[in-house]
Amino acid sequence: MTTSSNFKKNMFTLGIETSCDETACGIVDQDLNVMANKIYSQEEHHKAYGGVVPEIAARAHLEKISPIVSSALQEAGRDIADIDVIAFTRGPGLIGSLLVGSSFATGMGRALGKPVFGISHLEGHLAAAYLSDNTLAPPFLCLTVSGGHTELCVVEEYFTYRVLGRTRDDAAGEAFDKCGKIMGLGYPAGPRISRLAEKGKRDYIILPKGLDVRNNYEFSYSGVKTAFVRFIESVSEDHVRKNRENICAALEFALVEILVKKTIRAMEEKKIYSVAVCGGVSANTYLRQRFREETEKRGYRAVIPHIALCTDNGAMIAGMAQMRFNHGKLTRENAVFPSLSWPD
Ligand code: KG4
Ligand code: ZN
After folding, report:
1. Quick one: which of 291, 283, 225, 305 has its CA closest to 261?
2. Which residues contact 241 (CB under 8 A, 6 or more apart)?
3. How far apart are CA 216 and CA 261, in angstroms?
4. Distance from the CA of 54 to the center of ligand 1, in angstroms?
5. Which strand (E) or helix (H) includes residue 55?
6. pLDDT tens digits for range 68-103
7. pTM of the full predicted structure?
8. Per-residue confidence band for 217, with pLDDT thresholds at 50, 70 and 90
9. CB-CB contact of 286 with 176 (8 Å)
10. Which residues are within 5 Å of ligand 2 (an ion), measured at CB?
11. What are residue 37's DSSP bridge partners?
């Protein structure tokens, strides 16, 4: 088995992410420095439909994957031959979109004679925290909040996870997007809600917080969503337009506070005083601020990735592959395409 102790200096791992509507490629070195992180966001392709259309996403990935990989190599100042390991998102995600990334990565591996590995998208999001703070080490809690997932787990050891709770219905990002859609904010609504909320009043409307009970680490957003829809239906369009900032601030408060409250409670109950907050929703300014406030005042620690690493990207996939390689967890035997040459 090849481990960190015997691989050559200046090893580079390239990661491809195509699980949903971002065509992305990132490159990291063996010390987990991000050399490149190129993202093509398909927002424009899906805007008119109010959500991601799987068929359109797969076609757009097919069109953009090659240019994105080339521009990542250019950003890193590397030639394709310098790449030692190729990684791609193996799931979860849209099957057609995933297929584009895995086929492209496998094709590259075959052409270059380099090993290819599939990486879990969720574990990739966690890598964004390791890439942002290289002192982060287990045990710690990990809260993953994205468009598809809301999950709180204990990272007991590197690559060993114990799930404490998940959402019973919508993911946090999904709740942001669906509520924003009702307000006419387009897709994805999360970033727009975040911007509008900055100047609003958090108590403008009082929305329920899902599953706010002790010893329960599950999440639920259906109650907030229903209450929010009822509110929007009870007022005029003009009222919504004129009070967008206040409405967004109150919505953001309801969606974020329960995440902070339950995570802090889990830290107290489990006596684990570090948390990594990952996934697209961790780009939310209010969430970042609230996690910092609540952890700092207790002397706890919150590791929240750099904004560019929060939403889907290729560096997080390359990062997790590189971490697994460094810990001797990527071997010839578990490669999708074993390759002729092995990084030495
Ligand atoms: O991790 P991600 O890029 O894709 C998935 O794996 O789902 O997360 C996308 C989600 C979307 O729901 C988007 O609205 C949300 O993250 N998001 C935000 C912000 N930026 C992205 N939600 C709230 N505030 C933000 N600033
Ligand atoms: Zn994601």
Report:
1. 291
2. none
3. 11
4. 17
5. helix 54-76
6. 999 999 999 999 999 999 999 999 999 999 999 999
7. 0.94
8. very high
9. no
10. 146, 312
11. 26
